[in-house]
Amino acid sequence: MLISGSFVPVMLAVAFLGPEAAFFVAVMPELVFWLADRYRLSALGINVLSSGAPTLLGASLFSSLAPAADSPEFYLSLGAVAAIQLALNITTVTVLSAWLHEAEVVQRFRAHANLIPALSINVVLTVAAAGIYRSVGLGAVVFVLVSIFAFTYMARLVVTARERTRQYAALSWGVLSGLIRTLNHRDARAARHAAAVAAFSRDIAEAVGMSERECELAHTAGLLHDIGRFGLSDRVMERGRTLTEQDWETIREHPVMGADLLRDLGVYGPVAEIVRAHHERLDGRGYPDGLKAEEIPELAKVVAVAEVYDTLTADDTYRTPVSSFEALTELRRVSGTQLEGRYVEALAQLLAGRGVDYRHADWADFGEELALERRIGEAVGATSPTADEASGR
Q: Rounded to 5 degrees, what are φ and ψ at 40?
């Protein structure tokens, strides 16, 4: 993005003003950025070096070639010098910024590989701007440069908004994972159960051919399906005590509390709806809304199968665990009334031939299933380095 705003003017200086002027045009924006942001001086040195040195070398090379103005060689030479200059810039800033941030050079090069299409566009823009200047004059070039700067400014606004979204997503997911871990202190099964339901839900969704987006929604809803239990009192959460009808009414509210919490924290809406409906039954005898059959979101039906199965088979539940075979027998018994039959059978096929660890979810780990950084990246829709990481800042 920064390259788009400054590279074309720099290359026009290379083509028409000579090495000294081109070096000045390349370095001045870095000094202005530093005056505005006041990032560390070591990074400023990297940025000045990575911008100024390739520009000086490129301008000197172009001057030595001395192609005739308006000839094909002029534009070919300018494009070649622009590509070389960009390659030197990327190499310099990658190596030096990796040293500054104590990162792996290879990893940085791979990250910058995503910029290749944008860099190629800048080479084309350079040649086109030079042609416009030679054919039409300074006014046309000013118009082109203003358009480029306007686009760059708008792109910076998008990146800033994306970074703020990333921060908000990090806060939201941090709060949610913190609530689950806190809930785990009150009920030692909470985190493992959430991880197991998430994994089973994703696998069932994949097995029946749902889209990648739906599989991810099933997984996320599985992780968060019981988060509403955080709002239950310690008396209700205590194991081994007899629950009153009023206690059960409170427990039946946890899907509503979980859905409201997710909506308040800004997590995408479908997850809240799935969490609200994961205790609904096909026969309409579930809670909290008494939904029937087609009224229940499909992914809520998936989570329900995963949740019931793990509750029956896990060692850390409130009841004596049963074998995987016995659990599937029970799930098939309530198919069509409580649970969706095709999701029960999909789970049965998944379990066939699998080891005890998978069938009883002893492997389930909340931190692994959470994969916080990946989730934040998906929420933001960006996996490339930030502007500061791409430069030396």
A: -65, 150
Q: Where in the chain is the domain with CATH 1.10.3210.10?
A: 187-362
Answer yes or no: are the C-beta atoms of 13 and 21 closer than 8 Å.
yes
Q: What tokens does 309 get?
A: 């199965």
Asked if the bond preceding 288 is cis, omega within 30° of 0, the reply is: yes
- Give tens-digit pLDDT for 99-145: 777 767 777 777 667 777 878 888 888 888 888 888 887 777 677 66
Beta-carbon count within 10 A of 127 CB: 19
Cα 324 vs. chain centroid, distance in angstroms?
A: 35
The angle, 0 to 180 degrees and rounded to 10, between the axes of the packed helices 138-186 and 212-224 is 40
Domain at 187-362, CATH class: mainly alpha
Nearest to 223 by CA among 365, 342, 357: 365
CA distance 382 to 354: 36
CA-to-CA distance for 324 and 107, rounded, in angstroms?
A: 44
> To which residue do tokens 């509210």 refer?
253
pTM of the complete model beyond 0.85: no
Q: Which amino acid is at 358?
A: Y
Give the closest residue to 203 by CA, choosing from 321, 312, 363: 363
Phi, psi of 332 (to 5 degrees): -70, -35
Residue 325 pLDDT level (bands cut at 50, 70, 90): very high
Show the DSSP H helices in the chain as ranges: 2-16, 19-37, 41-65, 72-101, 105-112, 116-135, 138-186, 190-207, 212-224, 234-237, 245-251, 254-264, 269-277, 298-313, 324-333, 341-351, 356-359, 366-370, 372-380, 387-390
Paired with 270 in beta bridges are none
- Amino acid identity of residue 22, one-letter, is A
The yes-or-no verdict on residue 383 having pLDDT over 60 is no
